[in-house]
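Hi F.,

I've been meaning to write this up properly since the lab meeting, where we talked about keeping a consistent format for the predictions we share between groups. The idea is simple: the sequence comes first, exactly as it goes in, then the structure tokens exactly as they come out, then a line or two of notes. No screenshots and no reformatting. I'm using this chain as the first example so we have something concrete to point to.
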Amino acid sequence: MSDKYDVIVIGAGPGGYVAAIKAAQLGLKTACVESWTAEDGKQVLGGTCLNVGCIPSKALLEVSHKFEETAHHYAEQGIMVKDVQMDVAKMMERKAGIVKQLTGGIAGLFKANGVTAIQGHGKLLANRKVEVTANDGKTTTYEAENVIIATGSKPIEIPPAPMTEGYITDSEGALEFTEVPKRLGIIGAGVIGLELGSVWARLGAEVTILEAQDSFLPAVDQQIAKDALKQFQKQGLNIVLGGRVTGAEVKRKLVNVTYEDAKGKQELKVDKLIVAVGRRPYTDNLLSEDSGVKMDERGFIFVDENCKTEAPGVWAVGDVVRGPMLAHKASEEGVMVAERIAGHKPQVNYDCIPNVIYTAPEVAWVGKTEEQLKAEGEAYNVGTFPFAANGRAMAANAASGMVKIIADEKTDRILGFHVVGPQASEIVAQGVIAMEFGSSAEDLALTCFAHPTLSESVHEAALAVNGGAIHIANRRKKK
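Output, unedited:
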């Protein structure tokens, strides 16, 4: 038996590496097991988010947005640029450099905080023992007082569109294209599909997104979703709702996609096809039968509100448990679990977890949607303010979208905060902070915001909740 630890974390993604660092900071002897291996055989930390998810996709989104702005929108601002070219190889090289810097940074943080990194595939055995299988097949068993499972998730594959090298890929493969496809098909108009579609459409691809559901972004407040859909369509994204894919086959170096919609059977020919229908928990060969940890039929690990599993001393966080598959949610759970192991009593406020789609315009929200409140029979007031009436947005040539605030009719407490528009991912944090402190719409309305800023739209939306907006005609909406 090797050294015994206070905490062993299985998985070094945003949930796992954060939990390991926090546990070590709290004085617990901590190890983190990760199987991800680079081509040179060295361990890679950071999980999906840093390596093939959040970070590389944002690097491509930023570059493609700047390219699209330069090629198509600078002239209207008086900047004359001719023959703008896109070097895809250079873009990918930059993306890889950012990933390498950040993953290397985690290794440095492990060293600075005294976290032991163990390379190999971790499997939970009975009595909080962890079996680690190295690349050469050698196994070593470790023991801990507490084990935190943070193995993340992987892309869902669907039978009608099997992965085919060079033609049909998942979201990870879509981050490695060596050239811009002439015609690109995407299955799934969720967060991943929209972000990847935006990247390649800006660089010149003709993009068609097939979404099986009849509504666009059903989890998003529908006033915001409809606004976003109009803007994406104006950008050239062909989003087909109610399009259920029935097959995909490579013929003559093209992917022939068959699908059914309200009009019947349809066919789409594309150069590449991305399957972006969601992700599933990564729990392959993770648990021994006598580990004591239970999973549901979809592979999610059962936990309570504090991320405890049914096995004593075993916890699980992030994409392998209930709730949204978000890196920041995983990190918050990782911190909570580490602190609870150390004897503290923190909790994660699941009502205040923001969601973001990093398109242009961005879409971000926290809390309840109008649709949810209507279904619950709650009485509420709504205030909206368009970026078209915001001076800073107009100056930035990004005056599309709006801020929307929903407040309880009786108490005025903010129940939902929704944004579609420029820097929505940053603006939504104001809503998160307000809701975390139980703020009312009036609290925001009485707050002084700098002028000119995009955030003034938050101020005006808060004023509009109770019919007091200054820079638009008030249309107080009461339910």
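Notes:
The first helix runs from residue 16 to 25.
The chain is about 30% helix and 25% strand.

If this format works for you, I'll send the rest the same way.

G.
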